[in-house]
Amino acid sequence: MSRPEIQVKGLHKSFGDNEVLRGIDLEIGQGEVTCVIGPSGSGKSTLLRCVNLLEEPTRGQVFVGGTELTDPDVDIDAVRRRIGMVFQQFNLFPHLTVTENLTLPQRRVLRRDRARAARVAAENLARVGLSEKADAYPAALSGGQQQRVAIARSLSMGPEVMLFDEPTSALDPELVGDVLAVMRMLAQEGMTMMVVTHEMTFAREVADRVVFMDGGVIVEDGTPDRVIGDPAHERTRHFLSRLL
Ligand code: ADP
Ligand code: MG
């Protein structure tokens, strides 16, 4: 593997007595695309949220780009800027135009001036194929377009790593393809990505690696052909059979 961009060591996370992550070890190389699959409640979102410290791990370590996020002395805001996250719900500001949605966080968080923020916003809207929607409000866009704007907003912050938590699960089926196409482009450009998804075709075609989680542990971890095509564990087979 190339230099690990994301490293998770002995990660545990409990909510009260509910131990949701029970010892996760994972290394993701630079430019690697890892799809995380598994049943509802298996801890996929919690794992992603621990990787950018939206949740504080109960035990264990998380490193991104060689910096330990779980070090109490780390400047977490600085590290978090290197990690983009895209959720099932797009969370765009409804009262701001598409361009304003992209420029506001750059100006507030990165302190970019208006001209630079606007230039970066325009570049990233072009990347997701939505230049013509620059002045539209979110409500005027389809769900798929709103999700592409959310991706462009994340990219405008210049992340080294992108985390996606079921980015197409809230979309009408006919809108899923456009969002997956943008993610495929990012993968081809060499972005390091962790993608929680139920889109097995995407996982098979784009992922370098598939991680199957169940009950807060990684049950299987391997190439898509291995984990999806020829699962070694009954739990994985059972999960996959219910998706098809
Ligand atoms: P998945 O994304 O695989 O569906 P999650 O990581 O969302 O699973 O949730 C795993 C478990 O953790 C679930 O039992 C869920 O109820 C619990 N959980 C997640 N977030 C919280 C929270 N903030 N407080 C309490 N319990 C939580
Ligand atoms: Mg989830």
TrEMBL record:
Gene3D superfamilies documented for this protein: P-loop containing nucleotide triphosphate hydrolases
Domain ABC transporter: 6-240
Residues in coiled coil: none
Keywords: Amino-acid transport, ATP-binding, Cell membrane, Membrane, Nucleotide-binding, Transport
Compartments in which it is found: Cell membrane
Source species: Streptomyces fuscichromogenes
Annotated family: Belongs to the ABC transporter superfamily.
GO molecular function, one term: ATPase-coupled polar amino acid-transporter activity
GO annotations of cellular component type: plasma membrane
Pfam families noted in UniProt: ABC_tran
Membrane topology reported for the UniProt record: Peripheral membrane protein
EC number: 7.4.2.1
InterPro entries assigned to the protein according to its UniProt record, in alphabetical order: AAA+_ATPase, ABC_ATPase_HisP-typ, ABC_transporter-like_ATP-bd, ABC_transporter-like_CS, MetN_ABC_transporter-like, P-loop_NTPase
Major location (coarse): membrane
Annotated signal sequence range: none
Catalytic activity as recorded in UniProt: a polar amino acid(out) + ATP + H2O = a polar amino acid(in) + ADP + phosphate + H(+)
Stated name of the protein: ABC-type polar-amino-acid transporter
Domain of life according to the entry: Bacteria
The protein's enzyme class: translocase
